[in-house]
Amino acid sequence: MGQNSSLQGKIPPVKSPQGWFRRLYDWVLSWAHKKYGTVALAILAFAESSFFPIPPDVLQIALSISRPKRSFWYAFIASLFSVLGGIFGYYVGFLLFDSIGQLIIISLGYETQFAAVGLLYKENAFLAILAAAFTPIPYKVFTIAAGFWDVGLTPLIFASILGRSGRFFIEGTLIYFFGAKMKEFLDKYFGAVTILAFVLVVIGFFIIKYLL
Questions:
Q1: Dihedral of the alpha carbons of 118, 162, 85, 155, in degrees to the nearest 10
Q2: If 0-12 CB within 10 Å is exposed, 13-18 middle and 19+ buried, where does residue 120 land?
Q3: CA dist list (Å): 100 to 104, 139, 179, 198
Q4: Which of 134, 129, 201 is nearest to 165 (CA)?
Q5: DSSP state of 55
Q6: In this predicted model, what pLDDT tens digit does every residue of 186-207 receive, in sequence order?
Q7: What is the model's pLDDT at position 198?
Q8: Closest listed residue to residue 143, CA positions, set 99, 98, 188, 105
Q9: At what angle do helices 71-95 and 37-48 cross, to 10 degrees?
Q10: Dist. CA 19–CA 80, nearest whole Å
Q11: What is the dihedral of CA 14, 20, 26, 29, to 10 degrees?
Q12: CA distance 86 to 89
């Protein structure tokens, strides 16, 4: 399977259409006030890992703010189903790229990002997936690409468990202890928080691998 050698090892930023994307965002958020909000979170977390554009953090945070004592439960649900969705995304890329995977990538406007992921996987697949799982980088691009470039399911699963659970449990912990006032903080600094946490995880990874 080919790779574009002219691409650099960086993923360009993704620009989302404001109109339909905002309406979709508001629709996802509305489930926080409905009876089956937890079920919606599970479905959203699964879908976002393979084809849906709205991250589950939106609903997880809203649900956690409404019921802070269940913040860790919501984090667990988001983590579990996000990893399962990532496995589904892997098989979309591995078995169904020509029929489904390519359609997802093109319809969401991730062609350039998808091509660049091949170079990242060539350098260090585990850290690339971990970065995508932990930070705001579109995770579905990496799960589908992992199957397409035959990275291996085991690195995807372990990196996803570490990255996705780390991301969602950080959010859950902050809301559990600080409540609704954390929503504005997370909305404003979410990217910086997750990137900082990812850097700390990578540092720990290298300490364990090379020093212990």
A1: 40
A2: buried
A3: 6, 17, 40, 31
A4: 134
A5: -
A6: 667 666 666 666 565 556 555 4
A7: 59
A8: 105
A9: 30
A10: 30
A11: -50
A12: 5
